[in-house]
Amino acid sequence: MSERRNGGVLIVIGTLIVGFILSQMPLPAMFVWWRPEWVAMIVIYWVMALPHRFGIGMAWISGLALDVLKGSLLGMNALSLTMVAFITLILHKRLRMYPLWQQAMMVLVLVGINQLIFHWIQSLSGSTGDSLVFLLPALVSAILWPWVFVVLRGIRRTFHVN
Hints:
The chain is mainly alpha-helical. The chain has six helices and no strands.
């Protein structure tokens, strides 16, 4: 039983590492605002799928790791991912029942909240723009959600992560 649980933790951490890598892959300058929020989507999935094992604490640790990786103000991603995980934890039973297109709409809202918190903290530190282009990653994340969900569900079922 302990080996299965440790294997599940490694799978979750492995998917987060893939999310970290995807969030740092270089893109052409014209596509920078179109980068999906990979780590936020992975956090949403794991909180939805395993709320008893992946919760607010893991989202906070993931956010801190993302802050260090991106070189952003320490705690910005941690706070925003914690809020997203909290809302997902409250709604996880409903989210599971929704079809993928409705889940994608909720991902749009959740990643939008993530972006708004991040943008708000940036504005407090004095380094932000005036347009709403910072919300584009929420739209792209919602469009990609069905595929991310299917891939992560396949990984979870293949490796029997419970």
